[in-house]
Write a structure and sequence with these properties.
By secondary structure, the chain is mostly helical. It contains 4 helices and no strands.
Length: 102
């Protein structure tokens, strides 16, 4: 889970970095299925994979706590993207889910 998560994270971060530097809204690749694949990767793959390696039952709550924190970060990020890309971003949000591809 961790290896897949880190690979997907790296791929998503590369795509985002490449397009943001050129001033474009990233809407293809992983971003065609979810608006925030970097956050989703941490919640679904990396943190749960690490929790499975650690023998603490309390660790199971970490993905849920992270999801709550990420929701706050995502809200700020989406305000910025709406301000920067306007209607293009608004249309994108109507087609693509936020963190999970369903």
């Amino acid at each position: 889970m961790v290896i897949f998560g880190l690979t997907f994270f790296s791929f998503s971060a590369y795509q985002l970095h490449k397009n943001l530097n050129s001033g474009k809204l990233q809407t293809n690749g992983a971003y065609a299925f979810m608006r925030h694949p970097i956050y989703g990767t941490w919640i679904v793959f990396i943190v749960p994979g690490l929790v499975l390696m650690v023998p603490y039952l309390l660790g199971i709550t970490v993905p849920f706590v992270m999801y709550g924190i990420f929701r706050l970060l995502i809200a700020k990020e989406e305000k910025y993207l709406l301000k920067k890309f306007g209607n293009k971003y608004l249309e994108y949000t109507k087609k693509v889910y936020r963190v999970f591809p369903f």
